[in-house]
Write a structure and sequence with these properties.
It holds the Pfam family DUF6459. The protein is an alpha+beta fold. The protein has one domain (3-23, 31-143): Roll (Nuclear Transport Factor 2, Chain: A). Helix content is 39%, strand content 28%.
Length: 144
């Protein structure tokens, strides 16, 4: 890589870390999760609550792309119909975040894999966040 291209790449990386300085940084004095890990965990909890029928999907809309939001609405309505057909009541399940794995394939994008345990089942959730208008938004979401 020529020196000029290398300097541009370094400058671009430094610009990105100035805009999002604490995306991956953990506090070295404690084992507390980074702010982006907390955000990802909270969003995954919220998505699982929406699918379970105990949270309104509108509460998460501002942090999702339009396509992801529409997909979540579809999944939520299917889950509600299935609960209705089986005559199952809606109840709040407490989810425990087991692990959060983050990677950054490019500047302004983060891919996360989260393992979540509920009372009866453990699930994996994969999502992609992108920086849009200086705010993280979920642009891809998969519940496994």
């Amino acid at each position: 890589m020529p020196d000029a291209a290398r300097r541009r790449e370094i400058a671009r990386h430094e610009q990105h870390t100035e805009r999002f300085p604490s995306a991956f940084e953990k506090n070295p004095s404690s084992e507390s999760p980074s702010p982006i890990e907390v955000f990802v965990g909270n969003m995954v909890r919220g998505v699982l609550e929406v699918v379970a029928g105990v949270r309104d999907p509108e509460q998460l809309a501002r942090w999702m792309s339009e396509e992801v939001y529409r997909t979540l609405l579809t999944r939520t309505s299917l889950a509600a119909r299935a609960r209705s057909a089986r005559r199952v009541q809606v109840y709040r399940v407490m989810h425990e975040i087991r692990s959060v794995r983050l990677s950054s394939p490019r500047d302004g994008a983060i891919e996360a894999t989260v393992v979540v345990s509920g009372r009866m089942r453990t699930r994996a959730v994969a999502l992609r966040l992108e920086s849009i208008e200086r705010r993280w938004r979920i642009t891809a979401l998969s519940l496994l």
